[in-house]
Each structure stands twice: as C-alpha cells, then as structure tokens.
Design goal:
Elements: H1 2-27, H2 60-96, H3 98-112, H4 116-127, H5 131-157, H6 161-168, H7 173-181, H8 186-209, H9 221-228, H10 237-264, H11 266-270
C-alpha cells in the first residue's frame, strides 16, 4: 500500500502541476510566447527570464507554459477520440461476433500492421499538418490497440450469467451491450487510456520535432526541441526545458497508470 500511495502522490503532483500550468498558460504567461526581441536573444536564465530566451528573444518559460497547454489539449482530445472509437468497435466485434467481428477485426489488424507513428504520418499527409490533423492521425494510430483490449474483455463477458439472464428476460442486444457489457470494460480501458496519454504526448512531440506537428511559431515541446538543435552547445537551456517537461510528464502519467492498475486489479492487492 505504501508503494501504491507513493506512486499516486508523486504522479498526481507531477500531472497536477502540468495541468495547472496548462490552465494558467491559456489565460496568462509572463511574456508573450510569440513576441520577438532580437536584442535579447539567447540570454541565459536570469531574474528577468527565469529559463532564458531563445534565438528570437522569446521567453522560454512562457513558451514552455503555452506548449503545455497545446500538448495537453492534443493528448486529451486524441485519447478521448481513440477510446470512443475503440469502445464502439471493440464492443460490436466482441459481442455481435459473426461476419461483423471478422470484417471489423480484419480492418483493425490491417491498421495494427503499420507502426503507429508511420500510420500517423500517412494520415497527416492527407489531412494536413495542424492541431486537428494531429488529433485525427494519432487517434487512428492508437484506436486499434483499444479495440483489441475491449474485444478481448467483451469475449470473456458475453458468456457470463448476468448477460444470459438479460437475454432471457427479453432485453435487446443494444440494451444488454449498454447496460451490462460496456460498464465492465471501463476498468481495463481506463488503465490503457492513462498509458495512452503518455504515448500520444511522446508521439506528438516526435511529430513536432520532425516538423510535422503544430506549425511554428505556435510553441510545442517538440518544435521547441527541434529549434534548439543548432544551439545545444551554446544555449543548453533551450533543449533542457522542453526535454525535462516531456520526461516529467511521462513519469507522472506512468506512475498514475501503474497506481490505477494496482487499484483495479485485485490480484495486485493480494500480492
């Protein structure tokens, strides 16, 4: 229990700080994240600029705060869309079975055959490199994993006594899926969605680093890292700040996911 509480506390603090920064940045930042001041470019951390300035004289702290807001929004929307798609397709495939299951899973397996980042790149070529394009592309990349988890859970649930009882008293298939199957898929999907948040954040940062994410000058941690490459030796804070933001966020979400898994898995409580 001490281990679970420690993970919950540390992960909750890290993610809590991230969410607070993201909410504050949506309303206020110390400086204009897009404001250019060439006379103050590449200044090291100081009292005026706590985390220094970049090659255009923009405040790094303000840009990191605004990037947290952008990255969190993209990750939350992507996880929500991928989870919704995975729940609908997974429940239909696992509960209805027959040709519906075969068609849906054949398409799902086709998507799983492609690496997630490669599939996202292909989708973005079609829809364009922008915030909503990233959400759609990453949702299509991660939804097949949710479908697999949900379908496996539904296959074990559809033979339970309470499902048979629901059919015997005359409830329709849609009502049975909604009332008895879907609620029992929440626990495994919640754990997967927590981990997926970190994966999406890392994938979005990778796309932005490659120049295929949110177009500049809008800040994201990935494109901040990309623009810092020529200055890694002379202005190390430019890469340290977004890199630490990504690392601490992934650490926090992984700790929360592990704690959530331990609480929802009774076998972990016994061990």
């Amino acid at each position: 229990m001490k281990k679970i509480k420690t993970h919950t506390l540390v992960g909750g603090v890290l993610i809590g700080v991230l969410l607070v920064l993201a909410l504050v940045a949506a309303l206020w930042t110390p400086y204009n994240p897009l404001g250019i001041d060439l006379r103050g470019k590449l200044q090291p951390p100081s009292a005026a600029h706590w985390l220094g300035t970049d090659e255009f004289g923009r405040d790094v702290a303000s840009r990191a705060m605004r990037a947290a807001s952008t990255s969190c929004l993209i990750a939350l929307l992507t996880v929500a869309l991928a989870t919704a798609i995975g729940l609908v397709v997974g429940v239909l495939a696992g509960f209805v079975r027959g040709w519906t299951d075969r068609v849906l899973m054949a398409f799902n397996d086709t998507l799983l055959a492609f690496p997630g980042l490669l599939l996202a790149l292909g989708v973005m070529v079609i829809v364009g490199a922008n915030q909503w394009g990233i959400v759609l592309a990453l949702s299509m990349a991660y939804a097949p994993s949710v479908v697999r988890v949900v379908r496996g859970t539904v296959l074990s649930l559809r033979e339970r006594e309470y499902v048979e009882a629901s059919r015997m008293i005359g409830n329709g298939e849609i009502y049975t899926m909604w009332r008895h199957i879907l609620p029992n898929c929440v626990a495994p999907v919640a754990v997967l969605a927590t981990s997926m948040f970190g994966w999406v954040l890392l994938s979005e940062s990778a796309l932005s680093f490659l120049g295929l994410g949110v177009p500049p000058p809008a800040p994201t941690w990935g494109n901040m890292l990309s623009s810092a490459r020529p200055y890694m030796a002379s202005a190390v804070w430019l890469c340290l700040v977004p890199g630490l933001c990504i690392a601490l966020t992934l650490l926090g979400i992984n700790l929360l996911g592990e704690s959530l898994r331990d609480r929802l898995d009774p076998r972990t409580e016994k061990s």
